[in-house]
C-alpha cells in the first residue's frame, strides 16, 4: 500500500465542491480544508504507482475547480501510538 499526500489549490468558489468530490473517491481516505498556501490536503492510499497515475491523470482530471496539485509520496509513517509503544519501558 502506498500513502500519498496531495496538496490542492482550487478555484475559490469551488473549494467545498472539490473537497466533497475528492472525499467521495475510493482511494482518498481524508480531505482537510487548510489555511496557508494550499486550500485542501488529501490523504490518498493506492496499491502502487500505476494506481496513483490513474487517479491523478483520470479521476482528478474530471474534478472541476482544481487549479493545481502537488503530490508527495510517503516514505515512512510515524504515529503517536507507535512512538509511545517504542518508548514504553513497561510501567506496572
Task: Characterise this structure.
It contains 3 helices and 4 strands, in the order E-H-E-E-H-E-H. By secondary structure, the chain is α+β, with helices and mostly antiparallel strands. It has a single domain (2-86), classed as 2-Layer Sandwich (Alpha-Beta Plaits), CATH 3.30.70. A hairpin with a 6-residue loop joins strand 2 (28-33) and strand 3 (40-46). It starts with a strand and ends in a 6-residue tail after the last helix. The model has no long low-confidence stretch (mean pLDDT 90). It comes from Methylophilus aquaticus. It holds the Pfam family AsnC_trans_reg. Residues 7-77 form the Transcription regulator AsnC/Lrp ligand binding domain. This is Lrp/AsnC ligand binding domain-containing protein.
Outline:
This protein is of the alpha+beta class and 92 residues long. The protein has three helices and four strands; from the N terminus they run βαββαβα. The chain is globular and about 50 Å long.
Amino acid at each position: 500500500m502506498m500513502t500519498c499526500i496531495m496538496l490542492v489549490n482550487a478555484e475559490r468558489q469551488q473549494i467545498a465542491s472539490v473537497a466533497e468530490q475528492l472525499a467521495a473517491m475510493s482511494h482518498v481516505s481524508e480531505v482537510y480544508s487548510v489555511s496557508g498556501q494550499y486550500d485542501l490536503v488529501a490523504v490518498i492510499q493506492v496499491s502502487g504507482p500505476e494506481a496513483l497515475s490513474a487517479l491523478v491523470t483520470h479521476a482528478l482530471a474530471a474534478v472541476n475547480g482544481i487549479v493545481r496539485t502537488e503530490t508527495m509520496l510517503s516514505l515512512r509513517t510515524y504515529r503517536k501510538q507507535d512512538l509511545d509503544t517504542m518508548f514504553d519501558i513497561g510501567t506496572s
